[in-house]
Task: inverse folding
């Protein structure tokens, strides 16, 4: 476990030193700005998002989970695998007394940490913006809903990250992986809309699954089904990614 | 430390095997690679691995440190197989393979700090100690992207000896170093052998330097290990290591 712990700390320190935390701040501010613009647009046609301050953070989350968060998670995941392979820095960690499985899972953990920090920062900022705009309507249930919907978003984003990791262990060039991921994301997004009966097969349609968690009637069966599908994707791509990572000759 | 100890017939300890390589084979698609390599290195040896470019030196060292998987054969470090028990095999090993790499966006100190987390009892004093041993203490807080080739090489050497390893595997350790640097590193290797009984496995094409540093020589040519001999024996029969090397390679070339 010591090797795993050391690698997680190292990966997070590297992210921090590479100024990834500034990226998080940029994402947060940008998303909230977009959220505000959208809600102003909506209230001008009579759909006041600011009427309930607890709704604003959730509509910000919908924007975040579909756009900037997948994009930056993809960049971070590519950087940790393809980037390190192509800059030859992967062998620094590989020649230390830590097994490849621990190294692989520690890198995944570091990505999860990045996503989590990102979600928490956006949650805090958007909740405070919501509070500033409409102070009275905050309720305890509202806060719980916000926290739940931000926490559950971690899962689809991590599945997406595992898919990216899988591809960045196949292709050598970072830019090729990035291009492929963007293409797949767009295809999956469009296919999910066209073949909506089968949309639960496409991971992009699950980026919004936090909505099921906070809707007035919780759809347990739907949540369970989506959870199991994502779990399946996650296990498949984790295993596949690790298999390739372990086999790789440097 | 676990290592293979072979008692001799009088019941005493004959030697401790640090590296055992048995029938190691790895072929690339282009036909180069290494063929059935067998080698044993004992504790305290300074092994010089000599061979022309493309003879398979780096391939062998990459397999030894787990960066690459062999087609067949096995490598044991301290009696532990590098494929099955990687963490335990590498616990007392420091290495520098092919090129000295560091994270360019981190300072020399931060780079070593990352490595130190994998070992117990490595604190900031030890980091400063290895930085001064390799002569880059004054660049401690400079980012390694601004380093020259020689400085990067020194940082790579610092990283290799940081954990006070019992076995140090160095691939072309003198690459990019100036004359002073070469002398310093040669001194450093000798000092570590004398004070800490460190075992070295060094590949180099600088024959003169190998002659000055190593106690045991292996010559690899087109993926095959031609001969392994102690330096005293070689120098008893040949004027210089260079003569020995050329005669061994020539002998093989004619066959």
Result:
């Amino acid at each position: 476990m010591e090797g795993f712990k050391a690698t997680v700390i190292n990966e997070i320190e590297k992210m921090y030193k590479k100024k990834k935390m500034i990226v998080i701040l940029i994402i947060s501010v940008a998303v909230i700005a977009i959220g505000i613009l959208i809600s102003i647009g909506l209230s001008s046609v009579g759909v006041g998002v600011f009427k309930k301050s607890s709704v604003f953070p959730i509509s910000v989350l919908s924007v975040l989970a579909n756009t900037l968060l997948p994009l930056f998670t993809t960049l971070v995941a590519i950087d940790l695998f393809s980037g390190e392979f192509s800059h030859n820095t992967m062998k620094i960690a590989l020649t230390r007394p830590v097994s490849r499985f621990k190294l692989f899972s520690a890198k995944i953990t570091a990505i999860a940490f990045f996503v989590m920090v990102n979600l928490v920062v956006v949650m805090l900022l958007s909740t405070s913006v919501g509070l500033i705009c409409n102070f009275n309507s905050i309720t305890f249930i509202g806060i719980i809903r916000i926290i739940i919907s931000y926490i559950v978003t971690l899962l689809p984003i991590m599945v997406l990250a595992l898919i990216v990791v899988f591809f960045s262990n196949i292709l050598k060039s970072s830019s090729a992986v990035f291009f492929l991921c963007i293409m797949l994301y767009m295809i999956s997004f469009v296919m999910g809309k066209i073949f909506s009966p089968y949309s639960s097969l496409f991971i992009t349609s699950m980026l919004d699954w936090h909505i099921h968690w906070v809707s007035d009637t919780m759809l347990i069966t739907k949540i369970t089904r989506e959870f199991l599908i994502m779990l399946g994707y996650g296990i498949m791509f984790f295993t596949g990614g690790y298999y390739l990572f372990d086999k790789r000759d440097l | 430390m676990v290592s293979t100890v072979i008692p001799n017939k009088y019941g005493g300890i004959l030697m401790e095997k640090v590296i055992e390589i048995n029938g190691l084979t790895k072929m690339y698609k282009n036909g180069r690679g290494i063929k059935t390599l067998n080698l044993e290195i004992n504790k305290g040896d300074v092994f010089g691995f000599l061979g022309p470019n493309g003879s398979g030196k780096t391939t062998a060292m990459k397999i030894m440190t787990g960066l690459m998987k062999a087609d067949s054969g096995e490598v044991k470090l301290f009696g532990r197989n590098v494929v099955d028990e990687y963490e335990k095999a590498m616990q007392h090993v420091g290495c520098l393979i092919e090129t000295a790499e560091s994270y360019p966006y981190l300072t020399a100190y931060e780079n070593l700090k990352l490595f130190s987390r994998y070992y117990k009892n490595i604190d900031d004093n030890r980091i400063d100690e290895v930085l001064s041993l390799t002569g880059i203490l004054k660049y401690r807080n400079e980012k390694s992207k601004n380093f020259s080739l020689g400085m990067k090489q020194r940082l790579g050497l610092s990283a290799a000896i940081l954990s006070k390893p019992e076995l140090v595997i160095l691939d072309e350790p003198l690459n990019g170093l100036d004359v002073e640097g070469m002398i310093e590193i040669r001194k450093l290797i000798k000092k570590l052998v004398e004070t800490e009984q460190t075992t070295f496995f060094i590949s180099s094409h600088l024959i003169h330097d190998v002659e000055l540093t190593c106690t045991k020589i292996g010559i690899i040519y087109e993926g095959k290990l031609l001969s392994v001999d102690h330096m005293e024996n070689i120098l008893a029969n040949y004027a210089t290591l260079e003569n020995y090397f050329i005669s061994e390679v020539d002998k093989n070339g004619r066959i």
About this structure: The mean pLDDT of chain A is 86. Residues 2-247 of chain A form one domain. Chain A touches chain B through 24 residues (CB under 8 Å). Residues 73 and 116 of chain A are 11 Å apart (CA to CA).
